[in-house]
Amino acid sequence: AQSVAQPEDQVNVAEGNPLTVKCTYSVSGNPYLFWYVQYPNRGLQFLLKYITGDNLVKGSYGFEAEFNKSQTSFHLKKPSALVSDSALYFCAGAYSGAGSYQLTFGKGTKLSVIP
Amino acid sequence: NAGVTQTPKFRVLKTGQSMTLLCAQDMNHEYMYWYRQDPGMGLRLIHYSVGEGTTAKGEVPDGYNVSRLKKQNFLLGLESAAPSQTSVYFCASRAQMMNYGYTFGSGTRLTVV
């Protein structure tokens, strides 16, 4: 079985401060990990992914994430938060289930950036 | 623009009515997925397909059926809608290589009254 956990339902951060949205995973074999962002009444927007290679992954809008195999974590980070970063963030992981690589999502973390 | 298109975008159904949600992709992707999104639950997999003519159950398949008669289309059917199926439905597709990731549609907001 695989699972992805986002331990925080909500994260509040002041504008200009660094932000971290946490994600831990339990995936069979080598994991493929993703971060998506969703703005109100919108679809999912891809931020970044870890497939293989460097543990530090850089993505869209200045976001980055570090794959930590020993801690089974894939936390999303940004050095300086913007009010426009306020949204719902989803971590997701994929594993090879009958070759389909089904994507399993965390429950989401609501990020609020306070001006 | 290449991508995943979902129709309709919004729908209100009465309990017991049936409907079909259409997902179409023009990227020649092999794999297609249907998810539902509910508050505090994240996205949960309903059904998926690994190629034309194939379908398989995901985490929450009850009350739904799917078909993939053509490679580019993945249909999600509700035979007898229930209020518990009120949700936002997302379709996704991906190519054979994981490097390219998944492409999501913009969603269908379904309300069952």
Describe this structure in words.
The complex is a heterodimer of chains A (115) and B (113). In chain A, 0% of the residues lie in helices and 53% in strands. Chain A is mostly beta strands and 115 residues long. In chain A, the strands form 3 sheets. In chain A, strands 2, 5, 6, 10, 11 and 12 form a 6-stranded mixed β-sheet that branches. Chain B is mostly beta strands. Helix content of chain B is 0%, strand content 51%. In chain B, 35% of the residues are buried. The mean pLDDT of chain B is 94. Chains A and B meet through β5, β6, β10 and β11 of A and β4, β5 and β9 of B.
| Straight-line N-to-C gap of chain B | 35 Å
> Could you list the spans of chain A in which at least 5 consecutive residues all have pLDDT below 50?
none
Let me know the largest β-sheet of chain A: 6 strands, mixed
β-strand amount of chain B: over 45%
Number of strands of chain A: 12
Radius of gyration of chain B: 13 Å
Q: Hey, which two chains have the biggest interface? A: A-B, 24 and 24 residues
Oligomeric grouping of the chains = heterodimer
Order of secondary-structure elements of chain B: EEEEEEEEEEE
- Globally, the shape of chain A reads globular
Number of strands of chain B: 11
Distance between the termini of chain A: 41 Å
Rounded to the nearest angstrom, the radius of gyration of chain A is 14 Å
How many strands, which pairing sense, and closed or not: the largest β-sheet of chain B? 7 strands, mixed
What share of the residues of chain B lie within helices?
under 10%
On the 0 to 100 scale, the average pLDDT of chain B is: 94
Q: Determine the structural class of chain B based on helices, strands and strand pairing.
A: mainly beta
What is the typical, i.e. mean, pLDDT of chain A?
91
